[in-house]
Amino acid sequence: MAREKNKAEQFPFREAMRWLFWSAIVAPIPVWVLLFLLLVFSQVLTLSQFADQGEFAIYSGSIFASGLYLLARDEKTSVIRGRSILRTFCIFGLLAAILFYAVIAASTLWKITTNLAFIRGFTLVLFGVAIVIGFLITYFDVVRSYYDPMALLKDDRKKLEDDFKNSGGSR
User: Fold this and answer.
1) What is the mean pLDDT of residues 102-124?
2) Which is nearest to 80 in space by CA: 135, 132, 133, 139?
3) CB < 8 Å & 24+ apart, contacts of 162-171
4) What are the C-alpha distances in Å from 60 to residues 82, 100, 154, 158?
5) 27 exposure class (CB count in 10 Å sphere: 0-12, 13-18, 19+)
6) Whole-prediction pTM value?
7) Greatest CA span in the chain, whole angstroms?
8) Which of 75, 103, 107, 136 is the residue whose CA sits 20 to 30 A from 50?
């Protein structure tokens, strides 16, 4: 029984870790594949050069947008810890991602000089923040949706009835 309870308590964390893997490793796979191919062909290109093109601003924006969806879903009928703080982070993160990608796109299209070191650093930090916020939102959402109180009561009632029958009682 204790082992089952421990597994149930770990489930939301495992689900959030699974989301983290897919968001941080699989979603930006074009970046990883291109870096690998450039390494194979002895070309020098760093992760920061990808940030100069705005890829991490796009990835960050998509994580913040999906986080906003999870926070808005079932807002009136369920409780997610820290919903307003997480929503604020998502809104500002999404706006920052949009702004920085727009600046990068405009500077590329119209050959405007920009501070690439600042943009690179900010978009990489923004991606890190998006991953952390997305992980927290996913964790709290899984915790919220994992435990169904009616199902728990039904299971408890069934166990009580079985225990009663096994003890020699009758109904």
Assistant:
1) 83
2) 139
3) none
4) 20, 11, 42, 46
5) middle
6) 0.71
7) 85
8) 136
